[in-house]
């Protein structure tokens, strides 16, 4: 039985022969690397998307609040032209505060879209200026990084003060603190009293950090908005583990307040953290299914390309195989050489695929679809999968080379001259 040192020497020599063969057959190598790379790219995005979606799910749960419901006026699932969206009123607020079981907080909010903000010689368009009640930070689970929150007195007197998001502070004030500075919203001067903590979340309305918050009364008065109706409600409940029951009670009470019949559709929409997370899970599931099929097909195709080209390669390299066996190479040495060639090619494909996957992942992150973050797990899965493909699809051509008779191989290559 050969010693460990002898076996190791044979392994090193086989690796050297495998590397030379990969370099010698560049076109074959390029086909295999590209085919494997496409599958690994899809696999990379799947793994990172699942990890990113799980992280984002927990972040959204924390930001939205597991004990909270958000009610929008109008049915957001029905986009019929002319559909009423101003269906929530102060009478709804008072009724919910008095009669909704389990609720300890009911507050209205409204918004004004696309407002130009100016501070000194800097300008930006705010996607939405929000009107809110006192204690915005606690009500909306959004801590302040600087300054103070609204008070009941601020809301009662319609104070011209504001809270600004992190992106607004950076755009209008750079490295300076925004607290104590004045910004102009459509030429209305407001004093910044607080800066909201960075969230880094992008939704359907754009970057959430591009937000300015005013007292509800200030927004209503200064922008001449309807004083009876508003766009949304925020409700918080005791015992968040019973959220499905709380939501059903909320829906039933609102339908009663709005005098909706049994066959009438809701004229409001209720969102909870569970529904948002379910939507993200649906997106994640669709992405995983699509990319999973793509990854499987691409990697299997890459494996068949590898196997077919190796079969051709064994036929073309009969002289090399015959000479090596004539000089003492054993079957397991040749098997090892061809398997190493396969693993080198699939590993190169894995590295290419991870590069492609990172590029696609960054694109998904910039679009705000998913939070893609790479980890050592991705690296290990990609290399492990590619090596497995190399072994599975390379073993039969390798065994075919190992079983080749050296005399027949040399005679076949010599042709008529040998006879």
TrEMBL record:
Q: List the Pfam families.
A: FtsX (PF02687), MacB_PCD (PF12704)
For this protein, the parts annotated as crossing the membrane are 30-53, 287-312, 332-357, 378-395
- Which GO molecular function annotation, any one, does this entry have? transmembrane transporter activity
Domain ABC3 transporter permease C-terminal stretches: 294-406
The answer on whether this UniProt entry bears the keyword Cell membrane reads yes
Gene Ontology terms: cellular component = plasma membrane
Q: What are the alphabetically sorted keywords of the record?
A: Cell membrane, Membrane, Transmembrane, Transmembrane helix
Places the protein is found: Cell membrane
Q: How does the UniProt record describe the way this protein sits in the membrane? A: Multi-pass membrane protein
According to the lineage, what is the superkingdom? Bacteria
The principal location of this protein is membrane
Q: Which family does it belong to?
A: Belongs to the ABC-4 integral membrane protein family.
Report the protein name in the record: Putative ABC transport system permease protein
């Amino acid at each position: 039985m050969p010693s460990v040192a002898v076996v190791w020497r044979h392994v090193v020599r086989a690796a050297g022969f495998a590397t030379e063969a990969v370099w010698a057959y560049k076109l074959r190598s390029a086909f295999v690397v590209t085919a494997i790379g496409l599958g690994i790219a899809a696999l990379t995005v799947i793994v990172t998307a699942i990890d990113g979606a799980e992280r984002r799910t927990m972040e959204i749960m924390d930001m939205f609040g597991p004990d909270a419901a958000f009610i929008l006026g109008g049915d957001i699932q029905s986009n019929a032209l002319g559909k009423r969206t101003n269906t929530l009123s102060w009478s709804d607020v008072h009724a919910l505060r008095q009669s909704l079981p389990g609720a300890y907080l009911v507050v209205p909010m409204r918004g004004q879209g696309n407002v130009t903000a100016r501070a000194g010689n800097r300008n930006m368009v705010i996607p939405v200026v929000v009107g809110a009640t006192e204690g915005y930070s606690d009500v909306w689970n959004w801590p302040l990084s600087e300054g103070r929150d609204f008070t009941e007195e601020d809301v009662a007197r319609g104070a011209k003060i504001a809270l600004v998001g992190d992106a607004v502070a950076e755009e209008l004030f750079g490295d300076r603190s925004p607290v104590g500075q004045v910004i102009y919203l459509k030429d209305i001067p407001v004093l910044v009293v607080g800066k909201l903590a960075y969230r880094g979340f992008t939704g359907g309305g754009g970057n959430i950090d591009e937000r300015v918050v005013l007292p509800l009364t200030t927004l209503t008065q200064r922008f001449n908005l309807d004083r009876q109706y508003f766009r949304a409600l925020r409700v918080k409940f005791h015992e968040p583990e019973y959220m499905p029951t709380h939501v059903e009670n909320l829906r039933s009470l609102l339908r009663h307040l709005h005098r909706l019949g049994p066959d009438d559709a809701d004229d409001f929409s209720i969102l909870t953290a569970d529904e948002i997370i379910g939507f993200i899970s649906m997106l994640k599931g669709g992405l995983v299914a699509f990319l999973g099929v793509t990854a499987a097909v691409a990697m299997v195709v890459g494996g068949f390309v590898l196997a077919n080209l190796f079969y051709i390669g064994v036929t073309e390299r009969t002289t090399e195989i015959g000479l090596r066996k004539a000089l003492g190479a054993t079957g397991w040495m040749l098997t090892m050489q061809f398997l190493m060639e396969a693993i080198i090619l699939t590993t190169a494909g894995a590295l290419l695929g991870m590069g492609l996957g990172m590029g696609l992942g960054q694109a998904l992150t910039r679009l705000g679809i998913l939070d893609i973050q790479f980890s050592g797990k991705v690296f290990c899965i990609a290399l492990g999968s590619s090596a497995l493909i190399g072994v599975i699809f390379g073993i039969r051509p390798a065994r075919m080379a190992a079983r080749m008779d050296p005399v027949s191989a040399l005679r076949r290559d010599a042709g008529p001259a040998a006879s």
